[in-house]
Write a structure and sequence with these properties.
The protein has helices spanning 21-24, 30-47, 74-94, 103-111, 126-129, 144-152, 156-162, 207-221, 239-246, 258-270, 308-318, 334-340, 346-350, 360-370, 382-398, 400-405, 410-429, and strands at residues 2-3, 50-53, 57-58, 68-71, 98-99, 176-178, 192-195, 198-201, 229-233, 250-255, 277-281, 291-297, 319-331, 373-380, 433-441. The chain has two domains: 2-129, no CATH class; 144-444, 3-Layer(aba) Sandwich (Rossmann fold), CATH 3.40.50. The chain is an alpha/beta fold. It has a seven-stranded mixed beta sheet with strand order 11-10-9-12-13-15-14, sandwiched between helices. Strands 1-3-2-4-5 form a five-stranded mixed beta sheet. 41% of the residues lie in helices and 17% in strands.
């Protein structure tokens, strides 16, 4: 262990035990903390991390530019991680036990081949500390609205702070241009993520147009035009409904978020499309009518694996002959999806209760086995989501005083910073991907 100088630790946030009981509580699990310490040393060695300790100490030497994990409270960090693994890792960040000057770089290093961080001979111990999702968070018809309320009904003003004026809370599709020279150390220039020898032109100014590009491509996949009867499952704040109505479609959009419902209706009316677009407070399972097209943007992730058959059965039931279904969804590799499908994660506990990111294979198999729908096209856009998340994260961080002014405390702010950075890292490593999918029926094809 060496000693060096590094910046003063971030002040520890006040943790309200009534609001954040599991963040306020520091467990006492010495044996598990010792195991977590060994895992930390392994991770630092295998990922080339610089682990900084209080008093200017460094756990192990690391090359210049190495991702930094700065432990402000090592004892609390190790006991939290020892007790509950990655949930404890997230809660320790909320509590201020650790920081990093580049959170995405650190999480990207940790998210690369995460299965190799734990020695293969000890993976059987996972069942002793990995929790199962609680039954009350399963996305049943009775629970789904409560799950939605915990995230999407936080505050329309909160989302407006970091989203662009379209209020689109899903990945944009950016234009590409010539690849720019990398920064020292090989990192691409911000706003110019590499993509097959080209670069995504992702800036805050380009984000609204990139969101419209995403929406237009989905509407084109579904062949939405004048007179199309369109069902949207998951309204968001209404931008897709407005854009579809402007094409001459007749839109019914479903949401379980009361705050999204109110603002989406207002935005649709302000766009002069209230006669063409209707928003209903309705679970997807209760959808009524017949539609020429169904579009759903990043909603299936909230459905939950036990209910995927119900979701696709609904799509099949409401789709008119000759109709098309266009979905945008976050995806993960099939083996990773299976491994995580019964795991209670930090994201599920604090950000998106009740959900699961599907694989393309799972979507195709579910649709084939349970419906007449068949997957006919799948296009991947993962790097676009990494850049979308970067822009959201930068704006959220810049506007932290406004977040506080809305009544959200420091623990919440750190929670959302970690959530956005964690998601961005997932797309940068390929652990997560983004797909636009087209489903049609066999009998409807020429």
């Amino acid at each position: 262990m060496t000693t060096t100088a590094f910046p003063t630790a971030t002040p520890t946030p006040f943790v309200d035990p009534a609001r954040w009981p599991d963040v306020a509580r520091v467990p006492d699990v010495p044996l598990r903390a010792a195991a977590a310490a060994r895992l930390l040393r392994r991770a630092a060695s295998r990922r080339g991390l610089r682990v900084e300790l209080p008093g200017g100490r460094v756990l192990r030497p690391a090359p210049p530019g190495a991702p930094v994990l700065r432990l402000n409270h090592p004892r609390d960090f190790l006991h939290r991680v020892g007790e509950s693994g990655l949930i404890g890792f997230g809660e320790s960040y909320q509590a201020g036990d650790w920081d990093s000057p580049d959170l995405v770089a650190l999480l990207t290093a940790l998210a690369t081949a995460p299965e190799t961080l734990v020695p293969s001979g000890t993976r059987w111990l996972r069942r002793f500390y990995v929790q199962r999702p609680p039954d009350e968070e399963l996305s049943t018809a009775a629970n789904a609205r409560r799950n939605v309320r915990r995230h999407y009904d936080l505050s329309n003003d909160l989302f407006a702070l970091f989203l662009d004026p379209t209020m689109s809370y899903s990945s944009a599709l950016f234009p590409t241009g010539p690849a720019h020279a990398p920064l020292p150390g090989g990192a691409p220039s911000p706003g110019h993520a590499p993509l097959g020898g080209h670069a995504l032109l992702a800036t805050h100014d380009s984000l609204p147009a990139a969101q419209h590009r995403k929406i237009d491509r989905l509407l084109d996949l579904a062949r939405v035009g004048p007179g199309t009867r369109l069902l949207e499952i998951g309204t968001g704040w209404g931008e897709l409904a407005v854009r579809a109505a402007a094409r001459g479609a007749r839109v019914v959009s479903l949401t379980l978020s009361e705050q999204q419902l109110a603002l989406a209706r207002h935005r649709i009316a302000a766009a002069g499309q209230a006669d063409r677009a209707e928003v209903r407070l309705c679970d997807y399972r209760a959808a009524e009518g017949r539609y020429d097209a169904v579009v759903s943007v990043e909603m299936i992730e909230a459905v939950g694996r036990p209910f995927w058959p119900d979701y696709f059965a609904t799509l099949d039931r409401v789709l008119a002959p000759g109709g098309r279904v266009a979905l945008q969804t976050i995806t993960m590799p099939h083996d990773r999806m299976l491994a995580s499908s019964r795991t209670y994660t930090w994201i599920l506990k604090y950000v998106f209760p009740g959900g699961l990111v599907p694989s393309v294979r799972a979507i195709e198999e579910t649709a084939t086995r349970r419906t007449r729908l068949r997957l006919t096209r799948a296009d991947a856009y993962g790097p676009h989501y990494a850049e979308t998340l970067r822009l959201w994260r930068e704006r959220f961080t810049e506007r932290s005083p406004q977040v506080a002014a809305l009544g959200f405390d420091e623990v919440f702010r750190r929670m959302w910073e970690l959530y956005l950075a964690h998601s961005e890292a997932g797309f940068r490593t390929g652990y997560l991907d983004l797909h636009q999918l087209l489903l049609t029926r066999d009998e409807d094809r020429p």
